[in-house]
Amino acid sequence: MTIRLAKRVNLAVPSAMSGLYSANLSADAVSFAAGQPNERYFPTPAMTRAIDQALAQGGQHLFQYHDVLGNPELRAQLAARIARTGGVSATQDNVVLTVGGQQGLEVIAKTVLNPGDDVIVEGPCYFGALGAFDLCEPTYHTVPLQADGVDLEQLEATLKQYPETKLFYTVPDYQNPTGVTMSVAKRQRLVALANQYDFIILEDSPYRDLGYTGTPLPTIKHFDTQGRVVFLSSFSKILVPGLRVGWLVADGDLLAGIQKMLLASNLGAASVVQEALANYMKENDLDAHMVELKNHYHEQHDAMMAAIQKYVPDAVTVTHPTGGFYYWVTLPQGVDTTAVLANIAAPQAHVTYIPSANFYPQHDVHNGLRLSYSGVTPAQIDAGMRRLGRVLETAIRR
Ligand code: PMP
């Protein structure tokens, strides 16, 4: 018997999202695949206190249904924070809480896209966004990334070719998967293009607070004068992912549409965890936590850079991120990183990564790979990259 599923359930796709590339590894294997935050850095005692406080002080009302947009106090705290760090002029009325950034991606897609609509993504693009957008069956167009963000000339050429484009999706800060950050000039110009060609920008920035040098750039949303940019973020990478709280900033009709889709989706996310996070934000210095967190990840980031310089063959290019969790490696044309992972890296060298095919809507780019260093120690990074360096040399020679 075959169970008849919807077309959108493509069972072959989600190997990267389901964590397959980190599963079933031997004890001494090194995984550069998982993009999870490192749980050794979770502020567990403070978070436990914040949850206890919510339960102790919330009373009966804590367990009632609440505003679909989320806890007003937490929304006000987030509005104040993104105004200060990203130049977004938002109040709590513009902020919506979601079940992780992932639900934000899904809800925004549902709000904006009809089947077949043109969507432009960066090449490469975060696979979780592709998974969420796929539900709306869009027509994808990919515009390559450069060292300072998306190639705007190519973007404009694509817009001329597909003038009905509805949505452009970008991760402008320490992008997943490349680590690339979009320049301020490109942010400004991108909003001008959105105004000219009448499309919506989805600015997904869960890594914005994880810059290891300098100060954060203004958000794309900062330059938005027409309410066509949705800013999306999450607590997953800066505090803990387990509470599943993400948030977005939107205006006007977009905001009203998102609210309607959220009602259909979940009648509002779990209010108890939102109350706990509001307590955490009130009782703790999130900026101080970020300083500590960034010290840890910075050390891993530098260890990865050193290992890349030591072990990666000359024929390979690597991005130069200054924050986040990732480096992107480009091999000569003809090398297939999916095959290399399956045949050599994982089974023989005991080292994993995520192959580039996962980061393209048509799964048609095969000579790249994403390295994540968030979950590995400097010693593991050195050991893993020594192995991967040999694997890549072999792959190039073949
Ligand atoms: N966007 C990007 C760019 C991400 O890297 C992630 C997590 N990998 C998410 C969204 C979603 O994360 P979460 O649902 O945990 O907030």
Outline the structure in words.
The protein has 398 residues and is α/β, with parallel strands linked by helices. It contains 11 helices and 14 strands. It has helices at residues 44-58, 72-86, 100-112, 127-134, 152-161, 184-197, 252-265, 271-283, 286-311, 337-349, 378-397, and strands spanning 30-31, 95-99, 118-123, 139-146, 149-150, 167-170, 200-204, 229-234, 245-249, 317-318, 326-330, 351-352, 354-355, 368-372. The strands form 3 sheets. An 8-stranded mixed sheet has the order 2-9-8-7-6-3-4-5, sandwiched between helices. A hairpin with a 2-residue loop joins strand 4 and strand 5. Helix 9 (286-311) packs parallel to helix 11 and helix 10 (337-349) packs across helix 11. The longest helix has 26 residues, at 286-311. The radius of gyration is 21 Å and the shape is globular. The termini are far apart. 47% of the residues are buried. The model has no long low-confidence stretch (mean pLDDT 95). 4'-deoxy-4'-aminopyridoxal-5'-phosphate binds next to helix 3. Keywords: Aminotransferase, DNA-binding, Pyridoxal phosphate, Transferase. Belongs to the class-I pyridoxal-phosphate-dependent aminotransferase family. Residues 30-388 form the Aminotransferase class I/classII large domain. One of its GO terms (biological process) is alpha-amino acid metabolic process. InterPro entries: Aminotransferase_I/II_large (IPR004839), Class-I_PLP-dep_aminotransf (IPR050859), PyrdxlP-dep_Trfase (IPR015424), PyrdxlP-dep_Trfase_major (IPR015421), PyrdxlP-dep_Trfase_small (IPR015422).
